[in-house]
Amino acid sequence: MTTDQMTVAPSFDLAVTHTPARAGAHRLQLAVKHGLDRLAAALLLVLALPVLLVIAVAIRLTSRGPVFYLQTRPGQHGRPFRMWKFRTMVDGAEHRLPELVQRHGHRTEPLFPKLPGDPRVTRVGRLLRKYSLDELPQLINVLRGDMSLVGPRPHQSGEVALYGPHEWGRLRVRPGLTGLWQVSGRSALSWEASLALDLAYIEQWSLATDLRILLRTPFAVVRGDGAY
Questions:
Q1: pLDDT at 95
Q2: Measured between alpha carbons, how far is 50 from 55 in angstroms, rounded to an integer?
Q3: Pairing of strands 80-86, 148-150
Q4: How confident is the model over 83-135, as pLDDT tens digits?
Q5: Staple partner for 159: which of 109, 137, 148, 155, CB 3.0–4.6 Å?
């Protein structure tokens, strides 16, 4: 598993102290990041519009239910926001989650694992998930400032409710459309490995890191590794 030369430490000090000069430079970089996020999201939404329309028609023609799936998720510092996705499951799939949890055993970690053969996923949904096309509507969230292009993926409220103090470190930044987890194996990774990658990204963040992850994302998407 590669982390693009980023060091994944076994534990992290979440109360990092910066000098005033470093803190000011960090805030400036964040302002640049968020400005570029919104500019890029607006441009990508325009360029991807034909693809978005084709996907919307395919979902509508092949399964009952809405085209989009909107779900409230905790964002930066736990603030809730409405996350956009293309619907990849049968309508009302969330009501079958307790049955799947029971079938696959007691949850011992916050993140419920994605299942390769999840019976709730539609035929079109499997294709969309394999190539992460279901995530494209989250460009709307990036444009609104709920998310960034790069950052830890937003987890569901029920999963965040199971976080311990260490896991809460993921919420120090805006969630991302892609991230270090995305380009390092996605759902094939264990919860511990995913958490370590997210925290390493936050501790060592820079604009250059974001650029490297963005450049690696298309290759990870085409490979489809760990995408269920």
A1: 64
A2: 9
A3: unpaired
A4: 999 999 888 767 666 666 666 555 555 665 566 667 888 999 999 998 999 99
A5: 155
CA angle 200, 209, 172 (to 5 degrees): 45
pLDDT at 204 over 60: yes
Tokens of 90: 């049968």
C-alpha–C-alpha distance, residues 24 and 46, integer Å: 34
- Two tokens, residue 85: 């996705």
Which tops the pLDDT comparison, 62 or 226?
A: 62
The two beta strands, 68-74 and 80-86, are: antiparallel
Strands 148-150 and 176-178, bridge-based pairing? parallel
Token pair for 76: 């930066």
At residue 225, the pLDDT reads: 62
Strand partners, 89: 121
Q: Averaged over 174-183, what is the pLDDT?
A: 92
Per the DSSP assignment, residues forming a β-bridge with 86 are 68
DSSP structural state of residue 64? S
Looking at the whole model, is its pTM more than 0.85?
Answer: no
Buried/exposed code over 24-57 (b: 16+ C-beta within 10 A; e: otherwise) = eeeeeeeeebeeebeeebeebbeeeeeebeebee
- In one-letter notation, the amino acid at residue 115 is L
